[in-house]
Amino acid sequence: MREVLHSVKETLNNGTVLVFLLLSALLAMAGQSETRLFGQYLSRPNHYADGANIPVWILPMTSFDSQVSLPYDESLFCTTTNKNNDNDNDNDNDNNDNNKATPPSRWIVDSNPTLPSSIQVRNEYESSNQKYPLCQKTLSEDRARALQNLIEKRYRHNIAIDDGLPAACTFVVGSGDFDIDTKTYHGGCPIGYKDYDGSFYIYNHLRLIVRVNSYGHVVHFDIQPKSIRGKEEWWDQVPAQVHHHGQNHGQNHGEELVANELSDYNLTVGKTKSARTTEPAKVTANETIYFSYQVEMMTSDLRWSHRWNVYLTENHLVPPQVHIYSITNSLLMVVFLGALMVNLWIKRLNMTAKLSHHQHQPLLPKSADDDDEEEGVHSSTVVGFCSCCKKNKADAQKWRLLHGDIFRPTSTYPMLLVVLTGTGAQILSSILVLCPLCILGIVSPIYKRTLLVGALGAYSLVGSWVGGYVTAQSCQALQLSKDKEARARASFLTSALFPSLLSIVHIGINSWSIRMNSPSTRPLFPDVLMVMLAMGVFVYQSYRGAEYGFANPMTPFPTATSDTIRDIPIEPNVWKRWWFRVLPYVGNALILFGIFYVENFFLMRYFWYGQFFDAYGYLTIVLVLMVTSSAAISVIWTYMQLNQENHSSWWWTSFAGGASSGLSFLWYYWSTMHTFTGGGDEGHIIPVGAAVYYHVVTSLVAIGIALSSGFVSFASSLFFNRSLYGSLSDGE
């Protein structure tokens, strides 16, 4: 019992319990705004019998341009105040003349402040073809200007059903039997569109299509927005054409749908112009907008467990062969680099072995009679062999001459090199831990907030500790471990460098969102408190890793460092040219960018378009290929430097060679800003705030890639030099 109490006391003293309490509080604060509904990735299905209510959730409006979400504006659209009077069909104070009987599929708004605004749709198949009014709005000049501003910035409605299944926005293009459904499974449905003549139109009618399987599980949710002007066409009449249970799906008889460009996705969407008198609802002052909806219930054979497949694959918009071909191309590149590295290694070892064999081979005894006969031939053979041997020996032993200087610590900012390599190890280890969690479904790849919580956990528990350990080992390699102050400073800077950048950017973005009245903001004080908790956990874990690294001394270098510094010979003319010096960095950057390009493109669409991303298996394979390629390129470049007897610069050049990949990604991010924030429209004016936000976030991503690749290159070169000189003794 005394031993148990002593163990508990020791555990409390070393702070393990404290760090887990801080980590629990940090993860709880990071995910506190994630509601119960959208926090269940592996939730159980909800069964809806006939007459049951299916909740429909109205989420904040989002835009690809401004990246600032806005709350559902009741002054521009129908109010979200809950009405308990079943005979009151008026959802807006501006509409007091419409008091018809409430239809069965009436929208009922939940006023619970702890959940998003929700709407319940009654599941009754016999009335699923009806269209019902919501409210009417007479636009003032201010309201019309506000709506036009939202449409100009391409804000979109985000609606989900059941336990968070998002709506697939469908636009019908064509007419009659040749209707084509164009769907987008991410980003919500647009509020309206801007015509070629500069006029603004609003989608005021929503066609809700809910698909339920035989078990009563909601498996799919479609929304078809339409812009319809006037009351007489849709407000008071029920259309004659009825679509029951998936029959005649997508057909709208008697309507002509004209294509209109939606620049967000470069797709075509339907702008409805009825063959009778229907016109789109124009957003102008003193214009009355009639908001309405219709519900269609359809049966489906899809299983509930497979309902997310169509969202994750964008209905097979991108075939899996794209990822496979990209991985195959990257694999061939890695095989080529590996073969080149192995070829150089084997060639050099064979040459060294041959030279060693000729040096130790004894001369055969010869008779006196043979001496006179073979004197001329023997003399010419020896001279030829010796000249060739001297040349090959000189070429083969260039790197061998550096055994006393190769591991001499660099004098150029050694502390900075230690901190950068430790930070790169932090980031890389966190990513390599997070990807398997996403593959196993422990961390949801669908909801970004759960992904954020998983990233914080991986960075806190694994990344910070690994970063501290790598920092300790690097300090020993660069002979900084003898100074206790330098050890503490290196550990602290490693733990706080990249998290500090993230924290500053996060608080700045949150403050900007508060100023813009975005619903996704957090109160400033809890936000700062969360950052302080995170920094405390990161620093503690980094110190624990550094403590373990200093407690386990690094394996001594295979060769001793001489007291005198060997002079570096004059470089050949080709090495003095700037393009030859830059060539390895450019090659490394282009190769790593080519390997990661495809997955990087889909990740950018995931973060900026809201497109779902679930190819974490392919992403893990690509990351492994990137690590392998970066290591191979670093080894080849280091070997070329050693053959030039350059023993002082390989520390920094190995790290800079891998870190150069961040420049290629930064160039790609900045050059494609209009693609990810402007919908591919080069002439579209991006707001200043959105442009600054995009550049800052992508710069952080590029810095993370650069630090991770730099760590891999540095560690690979150090391991290569250890292996290369490990077979040599100090006397050789």
Structure explained in plain terms:
It contains 17 helices and 16 strands. The protein is of the alpha+beta class. It has 3 domains: 1-30 and 412-561, no CATH class; 60-317, no CATH class; 320-353 and 577-727, no CATH class. Strands 1, 2, 3, 5, 6 and 9 form a 6-stranded antiparallel sheet that branches. It has a 6-stranded mixed sheet with strand order 4-16-12-13-7-8, with no helix packed on it. A two-stranded antiparallel ribbon has the order 10-11. Helix 7 packs across helix 9 (484-515) and helix 14 crosses helix 17 (688-726). The radius of gyration is 34 Å and the shape is elongated. Mean pLDDT is 70; it is low at 4-9, 31-42, 80-127, 174-180, 237-277 and 360-388.
